[in-house]
Structure formats: C-alpha cells, structure tokens
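Case study.
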Amino acid sequence: MKNGFLVFLASLIALGGSWCGFVLLPVLQLGGQKQTTVLNASELYPVGRPGMANQGLQVYRANGCAACHTEQVQQNGVACDVVLTAAGKGPVAVSNLISSLKLNGLNKDAADAAVDKIKAAGGTAEIHIFATGPDIARGWGLRRSVAEDFLYDDPVQLGSVRIGPDLAGVGSHLPDANWQLVHLYAPRSEVKDSAMPPFRYLFRVQKMGNEPSPDALVFPKGSEPPAGYEVVPTAEAQQLAAYLLSLHADVPLYDAPFSQSVAAKP
Amino acid sequence: MSDELKSSMSPSPDAEPTATRSTVPIWIIVLTLMLLFLGMVYFDHHGGWFDSQVYGPYASAEQLEAYQPKSGAAALLAVGKQKYEQNCGICHGLDGMGKTAQAPPLAGSEWVNAKGFNRLIRIPIAGLGGPIVVKGETMTFGSAMVGIGQAMSDADLAAVLTYIRSSWGNKQSPVTADDVKAVRANLGARPQPLTSDALKALPE
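After joint prediction, the assembly is written out as follows.
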C-alpha cells in the first residue's frame, strides 16, 4: 500500500486523540470524585440510596424511563438578590435608598455595590444567590446537575430526550409515594394531559377483602377502581417509587452554590 | 492563475486532469492561525482550566469562589434551627419551652441567656444531671441529659447554640465554632456529666 505508514500514523493520532479527549481527560478530571458535604453544613452528599431505591434504579432502567425523562438540570446563569436584614440607625434613609435601588436579579459586583450603599446608609443587607435558566424556572431543581449527583448511580440514567419532565429533583417536589404509584398506574388521573403510558403491569388489580390492603393505592376522586376491587403495587412498582423519591439532587454544593434561604422559599 | 486550474482547463476535454504540487495560499494559513488564537482565548476565558469543580455558568475557580453564599447570620440560624429540631427539640420542645419531667425550658432561661457562654457550651458536650434551678424554679427530671453535642461538629453546635440564644425572645451574642472548639479541647475526649453546682463553680 502506498503511504501505508502515513495512513497508520494518521489513524493512530485520530483515535489516540479522541481517546485522550473522551476517556483519559474525563477520568483525570472526575475519576477521583468523592462524597462532598452540603454547602455551609456538615451533611455528606450524596448519601447512598436505600436498597429498595437501588433496586428501583434497575426497574427504571428496565422500563426505559430514560427514553423520555432526563435526570440533568441545566443552569444558564447565576443571579443575586439583595435582602435587607435590618434598617439600623437610619430607617428613613435606608427605605428611601432601597426604593431607588435595583435589588433583584443582579450580578455579584452590582449586588456588592448595593450592599455597600445600604451599609453606608446605616442598614445591613444580605446577598441571596440563586441559579437561573429555563429548567430552574420550570421548578425542576434549584441548581444545575453536577458530577457528585451521579456518584452512586450504576448505570447513570442521564437521558437525552425530554418527552416527560426532568426527574433530577422529583423526590423533592413530588415526595408522596402514593402520588407516584397512582401516577405510574394511571398517569392521567394525576396529570390531566400526561403523555406517559400507564405502567399497569407493575400493579395487581384484586378483589378487596373485608378491608383494603395496607398497600392499596388511594386514588383521587373520579378515577377509583370499580367498587369491591383494589389496586396493589408489586414489589417492582414499590422499588420504582422508592427510587423516584430518592431523586433529590438539589441541595447546595460548592460546585453549584445557591443560598439556603432560596431553598426555604415556597 | 494556479497550476491546478491550468491543468483542468487544458484544450482537450478528454484529457485526464492531473494534480500538481502547488503551495497553500498564505491567507488560509493566516486565517487558521487566527481562528486557533481566538479559540484559545475563548478557552482561556470560559474553560475553567479543567478544574473538576468549575461548571458553567462559572468560568473560573475565582468566579465560583466569588459566588459562594456567605454564611451570614441568617444562614447560620437556618442551620441551627434544623439541627435543634433534629437533636434537641424532642426534649426541649420545638418552641423552647421544655417538657414537664423531661427537660427544662430554654426560652428565657438564665443558663442560655448568660452574657458569656462558657457554661452553656459545656452542657450539650458533657451532659447534665441532677436538680437545676431555671427561672427561679428548682427542677428535677427523670433522667439526665446525655452529651448529645459530643457527636456534632463544632460549626453545627455553634449554630445550635446561636439559634437558642437568639430565638423565642432570647437575645444574646452568637457562639462561634472557635469558642466550641476551645471548650471541647478543655473538656477532653470523654467528659463526665456535669451538675448544676459544678457548672456554677465555673466562670460564665
């Protein structure tokens, strides 16, 4: 072959270069990822999932949930609110000042400048930092997803298509196990125009005994099973619900900071 | 006109076109170098230099550091409240009013509201047993308080103490992690449970 050595060399450089870029560099960068602590607190993050939830990850995987759901929240920017904590010695001057200042959605420098102005007028103020972006505005999380969030997931269920909503923080904003189970059994009884297929084969419909089983689903009005029957989740459904409830990747971390007071907002 | 074009525009259309060795125009080289340079400038400004903690929208470790929320008074109280409700509220009550035959009140207590906190820090670390006078009333309880703060970090314990010293009408100075650290070192690894009299013998 003419120029065989050159072809070999070129392929080696192309393959070796992409191996370095896609495998070696990420391993060097994040291969040593460890548990960290929640920002300004001593709780470890992430904590391993309880056994039920870990089995639920496999149910999630087996049912192809990641084909329609992502587990990664995006964040486009970061902004600051300046919050007055005390009017101090000159309440009138401070109130006049804050009515003339822009206090919400500032960048860090502008927020620092506003705090300095309020301090000069005799008051005290705090800066609250929060994440911004379409995903945050939809209520899917309080910050972007970072590598720590996936430390104990095997395999990681990132997903790439959002036919359904993102689930990175679903355990925080929908923490009711019964809601999750009813939604899996009959999505449209909980979300009116849901496009999610019902996962009825994860449940058993059975004749009720003298009284309902302790595990039987509690349906919202209008979508109950026929009288005398009850819907009971199988072990798989319970594992899947436990996994969904264990998804709450929205505590503040050093890599993705926001103020605790933002989390306290309803 | 370049050599390539000359060869492809030869008089006979049936002639096989041939490639010749012609030089790359200089402007392509300059453009490539300029694009490389601009790419490197962009990388320098937005790449975060492969720091594993820097993610977008942050562009560098310094910027990430600048956006860390300062652990201001409100943040400290939020931590303290959570830790209090987790560890202390079961006996002392979420409202700090104490519980009959379990634990004395913290709201308005002279032990909590002392000017100094030398005695106060010792109580959660070492534990406290026996009768104690709170708000002029001698109280006895079924069981002693265990050293529940022994397992808490200095920062968390300081946050709890700051919270109880500034809640339910209490208005006293905050406790810092360094104060807790100093007292903990003074008490040693396995402190004996205190009594009211033993505490009274110490400075405030």
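Observations recorded in class. The mean pLDDT of chain A is 90. The CA atoms of residues 107 and 225 of chain A lie 53 Å apart. We will return to this complex in the next lecture.
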